[in-house]
Amino acid sequence: MTSGGSASLASVQELETRFLKACVDALGADRFVTGAVDKQPYLTDWTGEFTGDAIAIARPRRTEEVAALVKLCVEYGVQIVPQSGRTGLAGGAIPIGSGPSLVISLERMNAIRSIDSSSRTAVVEAGVILEVLHDAVLKHDLVFPLTFGAKGSCMIGGALATNAGGSNVVKYGTTRELCLGIEAVLPDGSVINGMTGLRKDNTGLDLKDLLVGAEGTLGIITAAVLKLAPRPTARATGFLALGSLDEALDTLNAIQDRTGGAVEAYEYMPQPMLDAICRAFPQTSLPLTGDVGTGILFEVASTRPSDAEMMDEGGTRLESELLAELEAQMENGAVLDAVIASSERQRDDLWRMRESVLESIQHAGPYYTFDLSLPLGRVAEFVAKMDVAAKDLGFAPLVIGHLGDGNLHYALSAAEGVDFHDLSLDAAKAAAFDLLADLHGSFSAEHGIGQSKLGLMDGMKEPAQLAAMRRIKQALDPQNLMNPGKLIPGVEARP
C-alpha cells in the first residue's frame, strides 16, 4: 500500500514536472511563478478562508498565451484556475486541491486597448484595475459606472466572472448589463472573439452572457467591450433618516419620479451599522445626530444641461428638485431628517463611511455574512423577521444594503458578552434561508458562488436549472478542468 502510494505520488510529480517544462518551453520562464513563497499570495483570497496549491502561477500577457496554456492543461489533465485581483469573498479563484492545478493570473493583461467617445465604449483587458479604468475614461468626460469598495484592487476579469454589482446597479445595472462583448478562451483552448461592440446582434446564442457570471467555469474572459456613460454635470449626495424600510423605498420611488430616474445609489445604513463604524473608526463624524433608525446614503446625478443650471436661490436645478421632494417626504412623515453634502469633501466623507463597512464588521469580532437579494417589496419583511430570529439566537445583526436593487449584506456578529463560537450559526443560516425561500429571494446577489456556496446551490437551486447548468458545463468542458469545484455542484469529468 505504501509503495503504491509512493508510486502514485511519484507519477504525479513526474507529470507536474513534464507539464511545467512544456509550459516554460511554450511561453518562457518569465511567465511563471514557481517558488513556494512567491506563489503564496496567489493561493488565498481576500478573506483568508480559502487556500490551495498549484504547480505554478502563470502570468500571460496575451490571449494567445492563455490559449496555449489551456491546451497544455487539456493535454496533461491539469486543472485550470483563472484569477485576477483576488478580492473575491467566495473562494472562486483558489484551487480546490482535487488534482494538479495551474493558476492563470491575468494581472499582466492590463491594457486599456481603446476608448471610443463616439460609441461610448472602452475595450479593456481582464487585468485592468477598475479604478484605473475609472480614471482613464474620466479624461474623455465619460464614466464606467460599475463601482464598489474594492475598486482600487479588483480587476475587470473578476468583475465579469462574478457579474459584480456594487452601488450603482439601481441606475446602470450589473456588470453583465455593462458588457457589449468579450474575448475568451474556451476549455479546449479555442478563442472566441465577440469584440464588435454591437448593441444589436441576433446571430445565435449570446455566448457573452453565458460566460459573464460563470466564474471561470466555462472559459477565461481575457478582454471585453464595456459600455460607458456620459459624465454627470449635476450631482447631489446626502444622508437620510427614515421611519422604516418601507418608507425608505417609497421615498426612493418619489425621488426617482421627481428627478427623472436620477438616483445612482441608495445605500441602507441603519443605526447599528453606524455604531459599529464609530467603534472601529472613532474619528468618524456621522452625518446626522441622534438615532437615524433607517439610515440611507444616497446619490443622484444627471447629465441633462437643464439639471446643472444654477437657481436664483443657489444650487443646481437637480438639487432644487431633490430638496423639494425631501421637504414633501418630511411633511408626510417618511423622512425624519436629512443632510446634503455641500462640498466634495463632505461627499467623500459620506462615501468613506460607506466603504469602511467591511472593516467595521471585522472589528466587531468573528462574523458571518449573507449576500442576499429580495424583491423590493419583501426587504422590510425579511429584515424584521431575520432580526428577531438572529437576536433570539444570541447574534447582533449588522446590516448594510444596496437598497435600490434589493441586495442586503446581512452580517451576524455576537451580542455583547457572548462568544460567537458558542452560538448556533447553523440555526441562523437555516432561519435565513427558509425565510429567503418563502420570500422568493436569492442566496447569492453579487459575490458569486465560488466554493463557499456550492452546498447552497445543490440544496436551494431549482433542480431543472441545475441539471441544465451541468449539461452546459459538461458539453464545453468534458474533462471538468476549467475551475472545477466552483459554481456548479455535482459536475463530473466524462471518461
From TrEMBL:
Nucleus in keyword set: no
Domain of life of the source: Bacteria
Domain spans labelled FAD-binding PCMH-type: 50-231
Entry keyword set: FAD, Flavoprotein, Oxidoreductase
A Pfam short name: FAD-oxidase_C
SUPFAM superfamilies: FAD-binding/transporter-associated domain-like, FAD-linked oxidases, C-terminal domain
Name the UniProt record assigns to this protein: Putative FAD-linked oxidoreductase
Annotated source species: Flavimaricola marinus
